[in-house]
């Protein structure tokens, strides 16, 4: 059955026949697939029962496919040396071979254990050329995706449900490129070849990270601007996807293979080998760590920028006359301190702006980092730097609990828990006279730590230390005159 087909194949795809064109590997690959497809029914229904009857273990369809595959392997072995140094022809051949392999395995159930084109592509000269061409074309694509006009815009920006991560187009295209490369090499017959491709992918990630860093440095003056935020979203997206890939079965198998290679070559410490073996670390850990560091640096720069603006807007609020403000009973209704308005407006505008430009997970880190600095700043620069009469303490508490904290209520249920210093300072400053005197006595007479802690917890103080509370009590001016 094979002999006439072998003759036809050699007639058409060897020598100076018009059908033997080195730039058209798809012609002979399609011919072989067609022959396999056309003979499948006949082999399964007519030939296989005869073999089964005599107790043969031969699978007629697979043996027929293997016979034709030998023709393809011969042809590839002849053609590849002729087009090895023509990038476009070589790349086209690899593309066609990969499509042929996919159809052969998925449609015609050709076993992975049989000889296949991937063995030819894995031979040293051919494989190194494939790696070089893959790297070259990937770098060209990276150039074009970063220079595109839509590089920093999300394709899904108008579809809220899809655009949770606010991924700029260049980052999504880059990860798709990596995914396609994985798809191309995942059927290579040996783990060592797959690991070489994995190294290529890691190099590309590193290259892309460096490019993002370069663009980011051009944007540092506008760290709240659209492009800076888009770069930050891109870094976050790539890091998140790589972390997901680390749990993928294919990459876990590669991790195991890498572990065996490292163990043989003694290239890692026992600790690193242990982490890889126990799956504590992954093949992408180095990349993820670098991306996470870049993400943290960028977020820190944004937080510092907004914090500087907020401090600047708070300069009049710092100088408020906390010592001589009217008490609550002297006012018809409490209202926000006018000097706090610039501070709160600046904060509100920046939060809204960054909520729109950063993805949810990044914005959450941003506002929590900002609140941490804000809490310490208000506590140290405004509260500890002033003295408070009864009206001043009440006004501070009103400004904080009714105006500052609610700015963050859109992002969490209990924003006051993020302002622990400020919240507890307000509690101490607003204790009624009796409770304040009692607390002062307890703190002064407390020799051990336990009774003081219990007394502090009783009035709602958990974060501030005993000395801090004593300092705050001394900032109050509304003590009764005891004649001392």
UniProtKB/TrEMBL annotation:
InterPro entries (UniProt xref): EXOC6PINT-1/Sec15/Tip20_C_dom2, RINT1_Tip20
Superkingdom of the source species: Eukaryota
Family matches, as Gene3D superfamilies: Dsl1p vesicle tethering complex, Tip20p subunit, domain D
Family: Belongs to the RINT1 family.
PANTHER family tied to this protein: RAD50-INTERACTING PROTEIN 1, RAD50-INTERACTING PROTEIN 1 RINT-1
Protein name stated in the entry: RAD50-interacting protein 1
Species annotation: Daubentonia madagascariensis (Aye-aye)
């Amino acid at each position: 059955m094979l002999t006439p087909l072998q003759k036809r194949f050699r007639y058409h795809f060897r020598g100076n026949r018009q059908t033997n064109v080195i730039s058209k590997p798809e012609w002979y690959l399609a011919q072989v697939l067609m022959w396999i497809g056309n003979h499948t029914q006949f082999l399964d229904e007519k030939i296989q029962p005869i073999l089964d009857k005599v107790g043969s273990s031969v699978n007629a369809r697979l043996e027929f496919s293997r016979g034709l595959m030998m023709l393809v392997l011969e042809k590839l072995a002849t053609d590849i040396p002729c087009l090895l140094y023509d990038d476009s022809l070589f790349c086209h051949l690899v593309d066609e071979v990969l499509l042929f392999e996919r159809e052969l395995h998925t449609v015609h159930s050709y076993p992975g254990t049989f000889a296949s084109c991937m063995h030819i592509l894995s031979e040293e000269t051919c494989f190194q050329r494939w790696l070089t061409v893959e790297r070259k074309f990937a770098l060209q694509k990276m150039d074009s995706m970063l220079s595109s006009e839509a590089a920093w815009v999300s394709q899904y920006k108008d579809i809220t449900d899809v655009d949770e991560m606010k991924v700029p187009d260049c980052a999504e295209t880059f990860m798709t490129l990596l995914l396609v490369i994985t798809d191309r090499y995942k059927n290579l017959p040996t783990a060592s070849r797959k690991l070489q491709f994995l190294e290529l992918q890691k190099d590309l990630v590193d290259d892309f990270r460096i490019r993002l860093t370069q663009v980011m440095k051009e944007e540092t003056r506008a760290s709240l601007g659209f492009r800076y935020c888009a770069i930050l979203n891109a870094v976050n997206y790539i890091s998140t996807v790589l972390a997901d890939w680390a749990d993928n079965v294919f990459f876990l198998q590669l991790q195991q293979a890498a572990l065996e290679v490292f163990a043989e070559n003694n290239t890692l410490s026992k600790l690193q080998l242990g982490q890889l073996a126990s799956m504590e670390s992954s093949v992408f850990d180095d990349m993820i760590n670098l991306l996470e560091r870049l993400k943290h640096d960028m977020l820190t720069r944004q937080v510092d920028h907004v914090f500087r603006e907020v401090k600047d807007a708070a300069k009049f609020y710092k100088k408020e006359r906390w010592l001589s403000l009217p008490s609550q009973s002297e006012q018809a209704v409490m209202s926000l301190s006018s000097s706090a308005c610039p501070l709160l407006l600046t904060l509100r505008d920046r939060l809204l702006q960054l909520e729109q430009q950063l993805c949810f997970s990044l914005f959450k880190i941003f506002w929590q980092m900002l609140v941490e600095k804000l809490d310490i700043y208000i506590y140290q620069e405004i509260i500890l730097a002033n003295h408070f009469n009864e009206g001043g303490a009440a006004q501070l508490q009103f400004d904080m609990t009714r105006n500052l904290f609610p700015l963050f209520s859109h992002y969490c249920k209990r924003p006051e828990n993020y302002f622990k210093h400020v919240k507890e300072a307000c509690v101490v400053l607003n204790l009624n006279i009796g409770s304040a005197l009692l607390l002062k006595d307890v703190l002064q007479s407390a020799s051990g730590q336990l009774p003081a802690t219990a007394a502090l917890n009783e009035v709602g103080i958990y974060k501030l230390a005993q000395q801090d509370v004593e300092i705050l009590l001394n900032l109050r001016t509304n003590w009764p005159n005891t004649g001392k």
